Amino acid sequence: MTNSIECIAPSNIALVKYWGKKGIQIPQNPSLSFTLSESRTTTRMTWEEGHYQTEFLFEGNQSHSFEKKIIDYRELWEKNYPDLKKYSLKIESSNSFPHSAGIASSASSMASLSLCFSELLKSEGVLDLEEKKFFQNASDFSRLGSGSACRSVYGGVVTWGQWREGTSDEYASEIPELTEKWNDWGDAILLVSSSEKPVSSRQGHALMETHPYAEARFKHAKSRMNELYNVMLNEDKMRFCDIVETEALELHGLMMNSNPSFILIKPESLGIIEKVRAFRKETMIPACFTLDAGPNIHLLYPLEKKKEVVDFIKSELTPLLEDGKWIDDKIGTGPVINNA
Ligand code: PMV
After folding, report:
1. Which range (35-49, 78-92, 95-109, 204-218) has the least confidence?
2. Which of 22, 185, 304, 309 is surrounded by the most beta carbons within 10 Å?
3. Is the pTM of this model over 0.90?
């Protein structure tokens, strides 16, 4: 008998960044993110008992570079759940955003894949966990695929890393009291460059092992988590903007003074940063920027100010964007699982 499951997992944008790890994908500091809505990966897993096989199609085509990663990831699951070895698997994955856009898809793709493995094991009676533990387990395995992916298993405002009761270094968890207050925020993803990054996140995390400011950074990130949490709880939007921007620049500062050093922002990224700050000052609209380990800018803003923000993007930022492109995203509610 053949069975099939479809898992859609969104990407996420970190406000306090995970940068540096120890052991097996254990973060050196806690992080906090907004789960997105429109930027997502859909994975369909079809399984059949019989000969052992792993077929992987990315956007309908065979992809050897991804296939190796998928096979390694399957083996990791099999170490914990040997029953998986009974199945021939067909895994078909696609992203809602263009692969060449320069947006990291590892979070959404590993989260959707982890959820598919979890659902397969559940429907075969191998995994029998109540809902909360089921998602913690899926988040734990997502983390092993790509650290930040563990946050994509949940919607709204999500945290990963031990910093308060109920949080863990092994899996992420929702912060419902913040989601309730921040679920109407937009994220305009401003595409500055789609060229391949000169440093992978794996190399980036490794740079923190010998970084002269590593200890100070890890300590500071922990206190920043507490500060951001309180600011968000009190809905102090202007202070939120200051913290989020400082944190993003700190990440890039760390990369600039790593050995070897990397500069991932482009002149256009800097141009946008300056314009966003001027826009906030002039209009008093709490719109702010953050960046992942790349040149693209995430412009975060309250959706009630969408018209003003979109006008600002169109009139002032479009010339700084690659082909004038940006993605109209917002906070989302998390993964969707479709049976059959
Ligand atoms: O999950 P990774 O290993 O791709 O690392 C993600 C690193 C950042 O995007 C820069 C920060 C984060 O917390 O998402």
Report:
1. 95-109
2. 309
3. yes
